[in-house]
Design goal:
824 residues; 6-stranded mixed beta sheet; 0% helix; extended
């Protein structure tokens, strides 16, 4: 059954409303009465599945069919803006029109008419490129269009299809092989919710014969690799190359699961700037067909290359094992050890695996060897540390998957051995790394700013020529300018290791200080240059984010933070200024120990979009950040004092300035305490609300910035919802079910169906069915739910009534509830 769903808001609750008409062909449910009058739903029918529950609009409202399939449904506080209800008995659905109900949703717009083909005339023979054109339907301006091209007049196999916007009434065909084609166009309209897009009739089918290409079109490329019939594994990438052709400013690559390349079968359909590309990781088995077009500077396609068939399969072959190159088999090496091997014919990102072991037996896998290194993308690896003595190593490469959970790996290479020298170690090298972003990003090997923080961390790395002996090896460290960069007096490289990292502490300088760090064992040493740059201004952040977009509601306080390259010395002062009195800042900000320099920005309410520039100055240099102050949202509808009958859907409309989201609030008091609607509509600037309580209501829209901060009090409007002619109907109790048992201390949610027009409710829980005081619980909630975990042990009774501006409505039926002790 086709249905359309519209989302509305009922006192903050989302309500699904069914629209449209689609009756099941084999439906047997018939109704003798179906009405919705002042929120009271009554449906009497027969023909349902015997003893089934008959639901309304997929909701909780149900009626129990008897053994003959007859049923009665009665519910108060019911709403159906379309006045068409859907009944479902677990087998079939039918839709019934509710008498006594006034629809509050407009009917769908009409289906657009067909466009009028302009050219080329049906039966035309021409060279490509060729333009297809049409005129929009006269009675349906502003529609979009879908066009299709096929090799047969029934359009069973599409060659091209696309949807274009309302002002586009033509398209250009190119890249089609000579032959006869058929084309047609239809109009599409996109009405607002709750309606789906509407599609008009297709134009009459027109034929078109393409005899070839006009002069000057791009040439036809040829695929050079991979070769026709090549197989690859799922999750295996591979290179593609093709010939360059005259007239091509770029190329267009297509990969399809079908040799027709029909729409819907394309797996890759991308522009390429050169004659090389890399296939994506296709994670499934499929036949694969590849072709490429030359594309002229104006976007016109040449003829496609001859199609090359390939296959993605778990059973694709893998190449031979890699061959080890260095170190030489049986050779003696120092540290670091450089391993290399022959490259794979189709290398994968992170596709190589290396194993190193103390014995030639590699039977234990990754967990049973000395070293297991995976995720290598290049046919080499550098090992900074290995114990002295003999080591065996081997390599293999991976090519995607040979099964759903099995890697497609080559055989292991033949194992080789090498011996790490046990000669007395020397300092092979000293390397400096400077990191930012908490040690995540390597910024420099030669420059560091003054001071240390998560954006300025410096380390030295000592590399030995051979492993440290038993007891470790002490390496002496020195700085040629310890007032600019301090290092420990020494570090100890642990026994059997060849590398050790130490922390470099950059100190405060006023101008760049170049120095040398050295690491030595006895008289032998290695050094590395380092320049310590003075701390400097980097950027100003407002609130928690980077300096964009920085759009706020005028009148909200903001906090600015000054970020520096390195660490500004304690006691220094930044100078601040603002370009507008709409945002004021303090004149100065001091640098305090261990704190990020922050400052308050006081903004004023504005009546128009107001740009502001905040400037910070330090050590003769300045940085700026822009911010925009926006006025609060402006209300559009309903007008102040508007009046609505109970149960009518009220559509609120407003305008919120760019960069802010909207917080719609409706309350029964001007202070907006405990509002009946409190909803962030994001970028939507209209919202439909139903089941507003009767009486005088207040509504407003707050501008909310990207950090969730609501703007100051904007304009407020009032409206009135007229009370119903009689008392509010009794609520329908839902949970706990009548006769339910709960455990003492368990949280219990009292829940009932909302009543149209209710401003609040009165819930009473008593230990007697007459509700004689004192009551166990009495609450006056705005919504239709109360939670509690303090009910006493025993048999309890509960009921609810709705309240509006006139007074209380009728009490609901009384439900019984048993609270059992926790011990049973």
């Amino acid at each position: 059954m086709q249905r359309t769903i519209k989302t509305l808001i009922a006192a903050g609750t989302i309500v699904a409303v069914a629209l449209g008409t689609a009756v099941a062909a084999d439906a047997s449910i018939v109704t003798s009465q179906a009405s919705l009058i002042n929120g009271q739903l009554t449906i009497v029918g027969s023909g349902a599945v015997p003893n089934s529950n008959v639901s309304v609009d997929d909701g909780p409202t149900t009626g129990q069919a008897n053994a003959q399939g007859s049923f009665t449904i009665s519910a108060s506080g019911f709403s159906e803006p379309s006045c068409i209800a859907t009944l479902y008995d677990g087998s079939v659905s039918v839709e019934v029109t509710l008498s006594g109900c006034t629809p509050t949703i407009s009917p769908p717009p009409p289906v657009p008419g067909p466009p009028t083909p302009v050219g080329p005339a049906s039966g035309t023979s021409t060279t490509e490129p060729v333009a297809l054109s049409w005129q929009p339907p006269a009675a349906s301006p502003g529609v979009s269009f879908q066009w299709q091209v096929s090799t047969d007049p029934s359009f069973a196999t599409l060659v091209l299809t696309a949807t274009v916007g309302p002002k586009v009434t033509s398209t250009t065909l190119s890249g089609l092989a000579p032959g006869t084609y058929y084309w047609r166009v239809q109009a599409e309209s996109f009405p607002p919710e709750p309606y789906f897009p509407l599609f008009g009739n297709w134009t009459a089918v027109s034929s078109l014969t393409i005899t070839g290409e006009a002069a000057g079109q791009p040439g036809t490329p040829s695929l050079l690799s991979p070769a026709s019939g090549t197989e690859f594994h799922p999750e295996e990438s591979f290179p593609l190359t093709w010939t360059a052709v005259p007239g091509a400013a770029s190329y267009h690559l297509q990969m399809s699961s079908s040799s027709t390349f029909a729409p819907g079968t394309l797996l890759v359909d991308v522009p390429e700037s050169t004659t090389k590309a890399h296939a994506p990781l296709l994670g499934f088995e499929t036949p694969l067909f590849v072709r490429v077009f030359g594309v002229a500077a104006d976007g016109t396609f040449g003829l496609p290359s001859p199609t090359v068939p390939l296959t993605i399969t778990f059973h694709a072959p893998v190449p031979p094992a890699p061959r080890l190159l260095a170190p030489a088999n049986g050779g003696t090496v120092g540290l670091p050890v450089q391993l290399s091997w022959t490259p794979d014919p189709n290398p994968q990102v992170e596709g190589y695996q290396v194993e190193i072991n103390k014995t030639p037996n590699f039977g234990g896998g990754c967990g049973g060897v000395e070293e297991c290194i995976t995720g290598l993308s290049q046919p080499r690896d550098l090992l900074p540390s290995l114990p002295a003595g003999i080591h065996y190593w081997r390599v293999r490469s991976f090519h995607g998957l040979s099964g759903p959970d099995t890697g497609a790996a080559t055989a292991w290479s033949a194992a080789r051995s090498f011996t790490v020298s046990n000669a007395p170690p020397q300092v092979k090298s000293l390397t400096i790394d400077v990191f930012t972003e908490g040690g995540v990003v390597l910024r420099s090997h030669t420059h560091v700013f003054s001071g240390t923080n998560e954006d300025n961390e410096a380390f030295g790395i000592v590399q030995l020529s051979t492993p440290a002996p038993s007891g470790g090896e002490t390496v002496t460290l020195t700085s040629s300018n310890p007032k600019a960069a301090a290092v420990p007096a020494s570090v100890v490289v642990p026994a059997g290791q060849g590398q050790k990292t130490f922390t470099i502490r950059p100190l405060q300088v006023l101008s760049p200080a170049s120095l040398t760090l050295s690491a030595a064992i006895g008289s032998q040493s290695a050094s590395a240059p380092l320049t310590v740059d003075p701390a400097s201004l980097m950027q100003i952040d407002i609130e928690a984010g980077p300096p964009t977009p920085n759009i706020f509601t005028g009148g909200t306080p903001q906090i600015g933070s000054i970020l520096t390259n390195g660490v500004a010395p304690v006691g220094n002062t930044f100078t601040l200024s603002s370009s507008s009195p709409a945002a004021t800042v303090p004149a100065t900000v001091d640098v305090l120990p261990g704190q990020l320099p922050t400052f308050n920005i006081t903004t004023q309410q504005v009546t128009t979009t107001t740009p502001v520039t905040i400037t910070a100055t330090w050590r003769g240099h300045s940085i700026k950040v822009n911010m925009t102050l926006q006025p609060p949202p402006s209300l559009q509808a309903p007008a102040t004092g508007a009046s609505f009958p109970t149960g009518q859907v009220v559509i609120f409309r407003w305008h919120t300035p760019h960069g802010l989201s909207s917080q719609l609030q409706v309350a029964d008091n001007p202070s907006f305490n405990n509002p009946v609607v409190d909803l962030n509509t994001d970028t939507a600037q209209a919202w439909a609300v139903m089941s507003l309580p009767s009486g005088k209501l207040y509504w407003r829209v707050l501008g909310v910035d990207a950090y969730g901060v609501e703007g100051p009090q904007p304009a407020v409007r009032t409206l009135t919802v007229q009370p119903p002619s009689g008392p509010l109907p009794a609520p329908v109790l839902e949970f706990p079910a009548n006769g339910a048992t709960v455990t003492a201390g368990q949280q219990v949610s009292f829940f009932w169906q909302p009543v149209t027009g209710a401003a609040s409710y009165e819930l009473q829980v008593a230990n007697n069915a007459s509700f004689t005081p004192p009551l166990v619980l009495e609450r006056m909630p705005k919504g239709n739910q109360v939670n509690t975990s303090t009910l006493p042990v025993g048999t309890l009774f509960w009921r609810v009534r709705a309240m509006d501006s006139v007074g209380p409505g009728d009490w609901s039926t009384t439900f019984q509830l048993t609270v059992a002790s926790a011990g049973g």
